[in-house]
Amino acid sequence: LWRVWVLTIAYGAVYLWLGHLLRGRLPATVQASQAARVMLPLLLLLFVVLPILFDVLVLGGVRGWHPLHVMDPFWTINHCLGPGADGMQVGLVATAALVAAVVVSFPSIVRGVNEVLAASAARRAAAPKASAANGTAGPAGTAGSTDG
Question: Within 10 A of 144 (CB to CB), how many other CB atoms are there?
Answer without folding.
Answer: 13
